[in-house]
Amino acid sequence: MKLRIATWNINSVRLRAPQVVKFLQEEAPDVLCLQEIKCENDAFPTATFRKAGYEHMAVNGQKGYHGVAIVSRRPITNVDRRGFCGKSDSRHISAVLGAVPGQPVLHNFYVPAGGDEPDPERNDKFAHKLDFLDEMTEWFAASAGKGSQILVGDLNIAPFESDVWSHKQLLKVVSHTPVEVERLARVRGSLDWVDVMRAHTPEPEKLFTWWSYRAKDWRASNRGRRLDHIWVTPDLAGSAEDMRVIEAARSWERPSDHAPVIADFRF
DNA sequence: ATGGTCGCGGTGCGA
What we know:
Strand content: 25-35%
Helix content: 10-25%
Low-confidence stretches: none
Shape: globular
Number of helices: 7
Radius of gyration: 17 Å
CATH class: Alpha Beta
Strand order of the largest sheet: 3-4-2-1-14-13
CATH superfamily: Endonuclease/exonuclease/phosphatase
CATH architecture: 4-Layer Sandwich
CATH topology: Deoxyribonuclease I, Chain A
Number of domains: 1
Structural class: alpha+beta
Number of strands: 14
Largest sheet: 6 strands, mixed
Mean pLDDT: 97
Order of helices and strands: EHEHEEEEEHEHHEHEHEEEE
Distance between the termini: 5 Å
């Protein structure tokens, strides 16, 4: 069977519900994982997405900040919402893809951005980002041998040189500093996760999913970063047949600063 | 080297 999974930091799902519907209609993912929905669970536009043919939804929202959701046209089961670092932040939701062979667990993450100062001693938000990544590492390591898993979301780190417009100019900019890149590599090592985006588009080809709102012309300056990711456990590596960043969505009316990413699987 | 823009909620905070 085929399965199309998409991930998109939507930066307010209420404001951009029409863009989400357009994306669902044009790209027809089976499952869409959203981050930064920025609303509480009962404010999620459930009816709007159900009308578009997506009847299965799981939401982990909070007021004003963060928030993640899974929108699916296939049944999902075993929904789980994990709190990290002893906080009540809504940064994770997972579900089992019940109709998919092997019933893989799909995790949707919104990793803390980490503030501006890349020093955990002086910046609590950066310390939190590193702690969050370490907890991910421990948690996934403990799940070894318990079945197939897929991890998507805004990890707020661009790990490779070709994941940023200028490696040299971003070495001290949070999202691309060596300390957080190393921490993310440890998360990747927890289950020997396969980076589906880079498996499909190897270095040194540039690959971005986010462009700042502050550029006058995001496409002309193209100062992007690859902050959004799709990972799979090694047993699923051969199942990922295609990957695309839908850059066009960054130019839709009132866009998110992130573009959606799609991976096509055949199980 | 600096400042540039968004969304939420109704003030700055987070990104």
